[in-house]
């Protein structure tokens, strides 16, 4: 509907209609084939000669549909636009009342049947606005989709929240400690207490919480992103004890082992810098750098 000279390419994947999930109507076809036929039908109703092709990509959903040429002259644009508006409204009507439950009918019957069931005439107001308002109430996505998984938050803000939460857990139960047996010396390493996400949130200021609420998952996502420091299980936040981390059971191929070794110690150890007892692991066992001289 953008313009008469518009062409399109579409690679159908998830089964959706204009106003929700696509409802199957033909049991004699696979769901994928039926959906491809529906998308082709949309192109046909919009006045395109629809072509089908198969892409050479590693996916089970690799059939694409292409519309390069119109089936009508430019002088009939207004008429086709009304036809498109009616088609969209009819699909919405059927989606709401689930009126079309027939199976095994062909491509042409499907198109004609849907139009007849919902009525052949457009409401007066729809006729007047067919060329200007395509789908009243429809809100498209922004051209640039915002990243809201806490990954785009300023590093200093994230570091400040991580330090606040870690200190909160460490100070919640200062008497709680874990035995550390490295090099034959019995030391204690404070793992702190575990708190619920709600309890942690109650100790953060309003401005911080407001900023986190604009992200998907909020506080929980930020803590999970900082896997080195925290472990979030069943809604409770713990300080991660790297001595308890189980090594991977899978034997990696030589190439992957070499690559992982090359990537070793590319970040500083948070515990070495911030934890009052330092890191629970010795330098040679910790996957993070104990000081800038160990960074690769």
UniProtKB/TrEMBL annotation:
Gene3D superfamilies reported for this sequence: Zinc finger, CCCH-type (4.10.1000.10)
PROSITE patterns assigned: ZF_C3H1
Top-level taxonomic group: Eukaryota
Main localization, broad class: cytoplasm
Enzyme category, top tier: transferase
Reaction(s) this enzyme catalyzes, per UniProt: uridine(44) in tRNA(Ser) + S-adenosyl-L-methionine = 2'-O-methyluridine(44) in tRNA(Ser) + S-adenosyl-L-homocysteine + H(+)
Subcellular location field: Cytoplasm
Span of zinc fingers (C3H1-type): 263-293
Keyword hit for Zinc-finger: yes
Assigned EC number: 2.1.1.211
Sorted UniProt keywords: Cytoplasm, Metal-binding, Methyltransferase, S-adenosyl-L-methionine, Transferase, tRNA processing, Zinc, Zinc-finger
GO molecular function list: tRNA(Ser) (uridine(44)-2'-O-)-methyltransferase activity; zinc ion binding
InterPro entries noted in UniProt: tRNA_uracil_MeTrfase (IPR011671), Znf_CCCH (IPR000571)
Record domain C3H1-type: where: 263-293
GO biological process, one term: tRNA methylation
Family classification: Belongs to the TRM44 family.
Purpose of the protein: Adenosyl-L-methionine (AdoMet)-dependent tRNA (uracil-O(2)-)-methyltransferase.
Protein name: tRNA (uracil-O(2)-)-methyltransferase
Taxonomic source organism: Fregata magnificens (Magnificent frigatebird)
Protein's gene: Trmt44
């Amino acid at each position: 509907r953008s313009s008469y000279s518009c062409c399109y390419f579409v690679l159908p994947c998830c089964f959706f209609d204009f106003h929700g999930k696509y409802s199957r109507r033909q049991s004699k076809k696979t769901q994928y084939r039926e959906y491809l036929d529906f998308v082709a039908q949309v192109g046909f109703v919009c006045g395109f000669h629809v072509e089908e092709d198969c892409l050479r990509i590693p996916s089970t959903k690799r059939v694409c549909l292409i519309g390069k040429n119109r089936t009508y002259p430019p002088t009939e644009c207004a008429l086709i636009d009304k036809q498109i508006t009616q088609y969209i409204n009819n699909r919405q009507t059927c989606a709401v009342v689930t009126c079309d439950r027939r199976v095994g009918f062909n491509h042409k019957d499907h198109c004609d049947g849907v139009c007849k069931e919902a009525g052949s005439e457009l409401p007066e107001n729809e006729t007047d606005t067919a060329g200007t308002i395509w789908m009243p109430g429809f809100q498209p996505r922004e051209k640039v989709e915002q990243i809201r998984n806490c990954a785009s938050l300023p590093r200093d803000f994230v570091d400040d929240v991580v330090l606040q939460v870690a200190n909160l857990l460490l100070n919640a139960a200062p008497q709680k400690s874990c035995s550390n047996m490295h090099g034959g010396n019995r030391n204690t390493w404070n793992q702190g207490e575990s708190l619920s996400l709600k309890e942690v949130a109650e100790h953060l200021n309003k401005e911080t919480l407001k900023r986190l609420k604009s992200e998907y998952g909020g506080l929980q996502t930020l803590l999970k992103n900082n896997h080195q420091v925290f472990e979030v299980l069943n809604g409770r936040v713990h300080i991660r004890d790297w001595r308890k981390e189980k090594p991977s059971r899978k034997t990696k191929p030589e190439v992957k082992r070499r690559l992982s070794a090359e990537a070793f110690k590319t970040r500083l150890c948070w515990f070495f810098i911030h934890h009052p007892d330092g890191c629970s692991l010795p330098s040679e066992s910790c996957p993070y750098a104990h000081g800038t001289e160990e960074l690769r």
